[in-house]
Structure formats: structure tokens, C-alpha cells
């Protein structure tokens, strides 16, 4: 895989890419890194150019200042500019789906398709559920200790994950920067939302793939909201095992070109 480094909004950001052709960008969830999104897009590298960034404040994209959805969406635009791509399929898993959604709303001319995998955010009108609030506040209480105790304080947060997921999550921790962890966790716990109301969802015209959520962090009611209000939205059940295959089929079926050539 090829490493990508770029400057955006005063931060140095990191990504990896593979393959060639039409571009698919996948954004990882909160307190993660590009390693979490690679399984969703690497199987597509035989026919697409796939890019997995570390979001600002995550992985090797250190950022110790406040985060916003607009700023994170603008980082995705800066990434497309850097790799000389006009339009791309942009997706996100869990918290990353909120950034993908914000990108679709803020940079409508740059997105060829939108992929939302187990979304978290119900919008400003709804905010977090009580269970989400409790979970994110607990995570923030742990993450806030990283400055004094180091990033290893995060390891217990991953203890109850399935073994194959847990090992990947633990592998990400060693690349984390303590101050960036604190900034990211604070942003998640703040309750900031990537859109205001269902009318924002209704304004989307881009082809969309939604993989439903069905747990406390990824509530079914959030997926219901998206499925009801996003036009041209294909919905896959939460039980979908081959998510990469579903993304590939969506791209093959729904998305045109979009790669800009040149040095």
C-alpha cells in the first residue's frame, strides 16, 4: 500500500491507498484509525482506487485542538485535492459515517456516492440516545486520563470486543497520540451532530448505501431515520456479513467515474 501525507487546516494528515481507477474513500469510527476501515475497502482494490485516511486527531493524523464536523469534512476535500480526484465515493463506519454524511452535505460537487455503515448520529433535532450519552461519557472519562497515564489507558475499552476485532483495535492504540485522543474523545462526548434535521437528509441527491445499525451505539432508530428520509438510498440489513462485497456491488451499480488525471 502507498502512504499519503498532506497538510490541511494546520495539521499533517495521514492516509494509505491501493489500487487504481474510480476512487472509494472510507472513514473509520471514533477512537480508531485507518486499520479499522481497510477490511471494508481493500477487497475492492483490484478494480477501484481505495483510500483509507486517519481522521484528524486519530492514528498518525495528530491534532490536539478542537474538532468540528465541518473541519473533518474539509479534510476529506483536502485529501481529494491532494490525490487529484474531483469526485469519489465517500463512506464511513460508525462515527466515520457522520463525517461522510457531513462531507456529502458540505461538498456536494465532490461526492459520487455515499456509504453509511452502522450510523451513530440522529441529528441536532434528536441528539444522542440516553445509552449513547452514557457510553460516550464513560469513554471520555477514560480517554481524558491519557495525558497523565498514556494511551494504554484505552486498552480496557476494547476488552469486550470479539477476538478478531479486539486484536485490530489493540494494534491501533500504539500509534495514538495522547493529546489527540483527548481531543477526539471530547468531540464525541460533546454531542455534536453532522446535520440538523431530517430536511438535511432529504436534500441529499447522491446515490447512498446504508448498512443498518442495531446496537446501543448504532441505534436502529438512527438507521430508520436515514432510510426514511435519504432519497435514492439502498438499505442493507445489520446482519450483512460481506460488507465489502455490498460496497463493491453498490459502486458497480450506482456510481460513475470521477478520477482526475494529471501530475
What do these coordinates show?
A hairpin with a 2-residue loop joins strand 1 (2-8) and strand 2 (11-18). Helix 2 packs across helix 3 (95-106) and helix 4 (130-143) packs antiparallel against helix 7. This protein is an alpha/beta fold. It has an eight-stranded mixed beta sheet, with helices on both faces. The model is unreliable at 257-263 (pLDDT under 50). The protein has helices at residues 34-41, 69-82, 95-106, 130-143, 146-149, 163-173, 178-189, 198-202, 220-229, 243-254, and strands at residues 2-8, 11-18, 23-27, 49-53, 88-93, 111-117, 208-211, 233-236. It has a single domain, classed as 3-Layer(aba) Sandwich (Rossmann fold), CATH 3.40.50.
Features:
263 residues; alpha/beta; Rossmann fold; eight-stranded mixed β-sheet; 10 helices; 8 strands; globular
Number of helices: 10
Please provide the count of β strands. Answer: 8
Main beta sheet = 8 strands, mixed
Q: What is the fold named in CATH at topology level? A: Rossmann fold
Mean pLDDT: 93
Broad CATH class: Alpha Beta
Inertia-based shape: globular
Taking pLDDT < 50 over at least 5 consecutive residues as the criterion, the unreliable ranges are 257-263
CATH superfamily: Alpha/Beta hydrolase fold, catalytic domain
Query: What is the N-to-C succession of helices and strands?
Result: EEEHEHEHEHHHHHEHEH
- Termini separation (Å)? 20 Å
> What class, by secondary structure content?
alpha/beta
